[in-house]
Amino acid sequence: MAEDNNQPEDGNQQAAGGQQDKPQLQFSLQRIYVKDISFESPSAPEVFKQPFKPKVGLDLNTFSEKVSDDQYEVVIKVTAQVSHSESGNTSFLAEIQQAGLFRIGGLEGEQLEHTLEAFCPNLLFPYARECIDNLVNRGGFPPLMLAPVNFEAMYARKKKRAAEQGQGTETTQ
């Protein structure tokens, strides 16, 4: 009794072949690393002689780069500049580029863009947050407890701005 068990039960070979032609979705985080790190305290040691009254300025950016056919590097750049709220003197400047190497296959277009600009940064941000806290603490200051970031909302705002700019720049000839 030699039957081919690989055939679909309904005998529809075309449906089975169609599924095999569809690219398999692949996603894996290969490595998390610090790409760049910097800490400056230009007002030290004077800054430690007065009560710490911080005014925090935070800048957050993400970018990605294709490394090979299915590998992408995603980077979150966090810059925190903390000044004394009364004098305006910079207490410290901390900057980190937290990166991750991701293997992504089977995604294209907007799905790939969404993954690189929202999903991957969501995975990396806790590492960047911890690194900034540690860096600031080693600089002699209390940890800078960064609030969670909604990269999904950031991505949605970016897409909305791009759509609005696209409509505003259309010209008729």
Automatic annotation (TrEMBL):
Keyword entries, A-Z: Chaperone, Cytoplasm, Protein transport, Translocation, Transport
Protein family (similarity comment): Belongs to the SecB family.
Region annotation Disordered: where it falls in the sequence: 1-22
Domain of life: Bacteria
GO CC field: cytoplasm
Protein name: Protein-export protein SecB
Main location: cytoplasm
HAMAP family according to UniProt: SecB
Pfam families: SecB (PF02556)
GO biological process per UniProt: protein folding; protein tetramerization; protein transport
